[in-house]
Amino acid sequence: MRIKGDREKMTMRSEALRYWRSIHNKYSLLNGFNKQRRSALIKKHRQRMKERNHLSIFFVLVFMLVFVTILVAEVFFIDEHRTGMLFSSKRTSEFDSLGDIPDYFMDDKKLVGQLEIDTYRRQELSVKAKTGNEERFFRKNVDETHLMARVTGNLVQSVQGLAKADWLASLGLTHVTFFGANSTATDAEWHPVSHTRHKFFVYSAFYDDRKGRIIRVVGATQTKKSDRVWCKYWYSNSSTLIVNGAIKIIRENWNLKFSACFIACPLTIYRNGKQPIPPPESVSLMADPGGNATNKLRVLNLDVAKEEVRDTFAVCVKPLHFDYNNVNQMIEFIELNRILGVEHFTLYNHTVGPGVDCVLRHYVAEGVVTILPWKLDIKSQKEIRTEGLFAALNDCLYRLMYRHRYVLMIDLDEYIVPHANLTLPHLLHYLHTKADANKVGAVSFQNSFFYLQWPDDPNSASLPPLVTLRKTRRRQRFHPHKQRSKYIAVTPNVVEAGNHFVWEFLAGRGTLNVPNEVAFLHHYRVCEFGGDDCVRNPRITDTSMYRYKDQLISAFTSTLRRLSSTCPFDAKEKALWTLG
Questions:
Q1: In what order do the strands lie in the sheet with 486-490?
Q2: What is the distance between the alpha carbons of residues 424 and 417, in angstroms, rounded to a whole number?
Q3: Annotated domain spans of the chain
Q4: Which of 21, 84, 269, 393 has the fewest CB atoms within 10 Å, i.e. the most exposed one?
Q5: Which residues are listed as membrane-spanning (predicted)?
Q6: pLDDT per residue over 95-145, tens digit each?
Q7: Which CATH architecture has domain 306-568?
C-alpha cells in the first residue's frame, strides 16, 4: 500500500509538472509574440517621428523661403530705385544695415494692396491747333521725366465737362474763384481743380530738377481712380502753355477715400528730340484744359542757390486743429528746441485758440516761426487722414529744402534729444564720423514714452509747469525703428516724406538708424490706447532733460512774462500744466 501511494504521488507530480510546463510554454510563446509586437510598434513609432521631423524641417524651409521672398519683393516694391537697403561705407557695431519698410508692413497685406506705389497714368488728349488740324499727344512712359507736352499760344479746345453749377454742387462747393492772366498767383492756399468728378484740391507748387525737370504740385485727391488733369503754365510775357500732368498718390493714406498727392508737371517735350520747357512763374491745374482756371499757384524754389544750403535745423509740425490752445506746451516746445539747435519752425493753422494765436504771432514777428493757413475742404479722419497731414509734411519738406539742410518731422509733444551729445548740430557731426554723410537721406530715432499719468519728479515741485522737467519716468522698452519713430530729413535727398519714416529718397540715399544710447525721441503723452494701463509697463528714471533746466526755465518764464500783458492768457495757463 505504501508503494502504491508513492507511485500515485509521483504520477500526480509528473502530471503537475507537465501541466506547468505546458502553461510555461504557452506563455513563453505569448511573451515572444508580445515582444515582437512591441518591437514592431516601437519601430513604427520611430519611423513616424522621423517622418514628422522631416516634414517639420520641410515646412520651416518653405516658410523661410516664402518670408524671404515677400521681404525682398516688398523692399523693391516700396523703393523704386532700390536705395532703401543702403548704409554708409563706415560700418560699425553701433549702426546696422537697414531698409525703409515699416516693421508692421509684412503683416498688413491689405495695406500693401492699397498703397498704389506708382499711380502715374497713361493719359491722352485730342486738341486742335490754330489751323484746325487735329493732333494727338500722349505720354508713353510712366516715369515723370518722360511726359509728352503740348505747347500753344492759345487755349486748346475745351473737352466735355460738367456745367459750373452742377460741378460745384456735386463736390459740395458753394463758390469758386477764377484765375486769368492778370490774376495774382497764390501760395499756401487750398484751391479746387475745376470740372473734376471728385474733390481735387491743390495747395503749392515747387520747381524740382533733381530727378528730371518738373513742377511738383502738392494736392489732395481721391485715392483710387482720381481725375486726370492738365498743367497750365503762366509766363511773365502773358504766354501760356498746357501740358499733361501725372498724379502720384502719396503712399501713407490709411486706405481712406482721399489722399495727399503730387502732381508732376513736365518741363520737357519729347517731340523731334528732347526739348526743354522754361520753368513758368505760376501754374494752374485743370481737368478741362480749355476752361477757366480755378487755381493759380506761384512756383517756388526757382531762384535758389542749391549748392549753398546751410547746415541748419528747422522743424515741421502737422496742422494744428480743434482750436488748439495749450500755451505752456507751445512755448516750451519752441524754446527747448531752440536750445537744442533749431532755428526755425513751420506750422500749419487749421484752428487755434486765442492764447496760442497770440504766442505764434510773437514768434512770427521775431522771425522764428512761419504760420501757413490750412483750410482743406475734405472731412478729417472720415475722408482723409488727420487734416491731410501728409500734404502738410511734404509741402514743408519742399518749402524748406534749400533753406535748411536738416528738418525735424515731429509733433508738439515730441523732442529729439541727444544723449551722447548736448545739441543737434553736435549730434549730426558725431553721426557723420560713423556714416558717409553723402549717403544719408534721413536720421531715424527710436521712440520712448514719458507717460503723463506717472507721478511728477519730486524735484520739480518748485519749478515752472514744464512737462519735460516734471515727467522723468519713461517706459523702459524702446519701439523699433519705423514704429512710432521720428526722423530728421536731409532735405535735398528726400523725395517723399512720411510721418514716421521717409518713403522715397534720391537714388543712393537711405536712412541712418541711431542707437538709443546716442539719441532717441522723448514722447510726452497719455496712454496711447486710452485708460491708465500704460503705467504698469516697466519704467526707469531719465533726468537727461535737466541738462537744459536753467536755460529752459529762463527762456520760458521770460517769454511768458513778456506776453502776459498782451496775450489773452487764462490764469490757469500761466501756472498749471494740463494734459490737453
A1: 369-373, 342-349, 313-320, 406-409, 486-490, 440-445, 510-513
A2: 8
A3: 1-78, 124-300, 306-568
A4: 21
A5: 55-78
A6: 332 333 333 222 333 332 333 322 223 233 333 333 333 333 333 322 333
A7: Alpha-Beta Complex (3.90)
